[in-house]
Amino acid sequence: MLSERRLQVLRAIVQDYVGTEEPVGSKALTERHNLGVSPATVRNDMAALEDEGFIAQPHTSAGRIPTDKGYRLFVDKLAGVKPMTAPERRAIQNFLEGSVDLDDVVARTVRLLAQLTRQVAVVQYPSLTRSTVRHVELLSLAPARVMLVLITDTGRVEQRMVDCPAPFGESALADLRARLNSRVAGRRFADVPKLVEDLPDAFEPEDRGTVSTVLSTLLETLVEENEERLMIGGTANLTRFGHDFPFTIRPVLEALEEHVVLLKLLGEAKDPGVTVRIGHENAHEGLNSTSVVSVGYGSGGEAVAKLGVVGPTRMDYPGTMGAVRAVARYVGQILAES
Amino acid sequence: MLSERRLQVLRAIVQDYVGTEEPVGSKALTERHNLGVSPATVRNDMAALEDEGFIAQPHTSAGRIPTDKGYRLFVDKLAGVKPMTAPERRAIQNFLEGSVDLDDVVARTVRLLAQLTRQVAVVQYPSLTRSTVRHVELLSLAPARVMLVLITDTGRVEQRMVDCPAPFGESALADLRARLNSRVAGRRFADVPKLVEDLPDAFEPEDRGTVSTVLSTLLETLVEENEERLMIGGTANLTRFGHDFPFTIRPVLEALEEHVVLLKLLGEAKDPGVTVRIGHENAHEGLNSTSVVSVGYGSGGEAVAKLGVVGPTRMDYPGTMGAVRAVARYVGQILAES
DNA sequence: TGCTGGCACTCACGTGGGAAGAGTGCCAGG
DNA sequence: CCTGGCACTCTTCCCACGTGAGTGCCAGCA
């Protein structure tokens, strides 16, 4: 096991490297942090840390930089979450409170998070799967054409066109609308399939096909996974990445465009608190030199979706984690109010 | 006026530079294009073209590169639009036909355009301002709370919460819904304000406040300019920009995040055909070293929105214009069908 | 056993001087 | 008005060298 001082050395290395973006040497370390020992001692500690794989040197005559494993230890054991200051919190609240609708909340959140962390912000929309149905509306656009509008408790609206197998009368439509809503309004998505199972039986035989079609469209809408949308912002911050641009930035930009990948990435984080995935811990190759800091958020106690930031592994973890957590908290509040 | 041959020289310079990304000299020109004259002659022509501001040299002992003015002349006079090949057209059609709803059409269009042109694709959603109302739905969520859902002929759905000044009965709501739809369904947005002007008069005095509130929310929704949303894709292609990265790419990424700027940019293009804005012709500073190729698209004969690509001024204009035009055409078809 | 100072060693990095090569401008001749 | 020739200008590449930061190791000391 590593001694207390060696952990301190690691912490100091991470902090300095995050600040200066340059490999940090033993001499600089003793000057900037009062470790109470000489550079030579620190060198021994660094050699030990390197043996254990927590730090590495880019080339022989350079200082050390933390490895993914080093950052992991730093995040888990050596650093806490740096809370936002009161003025910062007020600013977050003010900024989010001007929102007019869900899309606007998300858009503002992305911008805020990107500004706050100076990194790429990623916000997943409230997932449908844990939401409840507020209302289902059916509109007849043509004799055999119905528009299905689903309104969720998060204020989200989804619409689908349904081509009916047979013409469907206004009265039957009104009937279906009424029955449907009395059964599913206020219920969770997951419960809907069972609740509407026997609904076609209540209708005239010639309408059953249409009713089934409408219902299956509704169920599709509910489960459709790619309905989890993402909003991304602050990509310009990627330019602060490193100096060897094209090859660093390109795979990241590509990964960011693959929303499916990001959604999966966010979905994997099961921790109720802030989750940090460092470098190679991210399954996607393009993100192997980035870290993802994410957290769930939601209107109630429950997290309905995730938000987070993507940045270089060399990032200010305590600060970023604090910002992400704070933003998630206030977004949750805003959503609960509306 | 420039002689025919000088124009040919300019065309050759643009083509070569776009291909090689390197300043092109007189000797290389005569080798790759059979202009029928010697390098010395070409040099004289180049000197003339430089005097006129169509080309420039990065430094004394280098070849020439086209200026914005040079590209402008090239686009206007020297090059046409390169049509897509039949297989390409089929691929476009196939790819777009799998779409399930409007959002999906837009998402696919962005990806397609980015892949096709290997540049950044920008697609504006069908603008509300020229659309017509298909249906307005009013839902009572609480005694003094109404949800307004607007459905447009482009299949777009907008929802708004309305807090009523006074409780509003179900029957009054149904009445309002019926009257509202009979007046505005099928009408253009621009005409709606006049059509609903006197609507409150038809209601009981105690309901008029609520009716007015609902109507003004509707009007707000109709005119709200920022409801023109954008989808952007292919930002990874920016890495192919140049070799001097950070400073080239950063302002572009920043500009791309300012949707307002992009919307304005797209909106400015009045030409019914493909519009090209080159370098400094773009009002926004960040886009001064990029060109924007855009075109309107829409379900009917009329263009309801714009799409386009953003790329380096050194781009394959004929090819890009062809791709943009083709995609716009097929997107229009898809929208017309649905 | 652990810390310290000293010392030799290793590289990356910046600098400076050529040499090479591409491209130009100009001029005189056809 | 076009052409070949020629001198000139720069950038770019390469190599060699000195510099300095940082290391590893060792012997001495608490």
From TrEMBL, chains A, B:
Pfam families: HrcA (PF01628). Keywords: Repressor, Stress response, Transcription, Transcription regulation. InterPro entries: GAF-like_dom_sf (IPR029016), HrcA (IPR002571), HrcA_C (IPR021153), WH-like_DNA-bd_sf (IPR036388), WH_DNA-bd_sf (IPR036390), WHTH_transcript_rep_HrcA_IDD (IPR023120). Belongs to the HrcA family. The keyword Ligase does not apply. Residues 103-321 form the Heat-inducible transcription repressor HrcA C-terminal domain. This is Heat-inducible transcription repressor HrcA. HAMAP family: HrcA (MF_00081). Coiled coil: none annotated. Negative regulator of class I heat shock genes (grpE-dnaK-dnaJ and groELS operons). Prevents heat-shock induction of these operons.
